[in-house]
Amino acid sequence: MSYFMVDIESDGPIPGDFSMVCFGAVLVNEELDTNFYGKLKPISEKFNPEALAVSGFSREETMQFDDPKEVMLAFEEWIRDNTKGRPIFISDNNGFDWMFICWYFHHFTGKNPFGYSSRRLSDLYCGLEKDTFAQWKHLRKSEHTHHPVDDARGNAEVLLYMKKEMGLKIGLK
Fold first, then answer.
1. Which of 8, 19, 69, 130 lies in disulfide reach of 42, CB 3.0 to 4.6 Å?
2. 146 is catalytic
3. Which tens digit of pLDDT belongs to each residue from 95-130?
4. Measured between alpha carbons, how far is residue 89 from residues 84, 95, 97 in Å?
C-alpha cells in the first residue's frame, strides 16, 4: 500500500456549493520528495471571503486557475504512477479534505482512485498515545504555511515520526 498525505484549501465549507481552490499531496516515504500540486478554477459563483483568504489567493486569481477536470485527471494519473499496491488517503482532517477530494474525483472523473475510505492522522496519533485529546502538531518539521504541499509534507513528517519513534506498524511502499 502507498500512503498519500493530502491537504486542501477551499473557498467554503462544502464541495459543490463552494470550490476547492488548491490541494497538495505527498507520497509518504523516507524522502517525502514526490508531490502533486493542483490549483482549480472555481466551480460555483458562491465563495466565502474569509475561507478563501486562508489560501492566500484572491477570487480574481482563482478564476485563472486550471480546469478542475484536467487537474483531477492529472492527479489520478500521478497517484497511479506513484502507487505500489493500493493507494491510501490520509490527512490531518480527513472529514474536510476527503470530502472535497472524493467529491471532485466522482464529479469530474466518475471514480475515486482511493476507493471509499480514508485515514485521519490525528486519530492514529491519539490511538498510539491512548488519549483522545493528545496533541501532535508540534511534531511537524516543516512550517504550517497553508500551502497544501507544505502542510501535507509536515503531516507526513509526523506519520514517519509515529512509525520510527512510536512504533506505528505501517507499511510504506
1. 19
2. yes
3. 999 999 999 999 999 999 999 999 999 999 999 999
4. 14, 12, 10
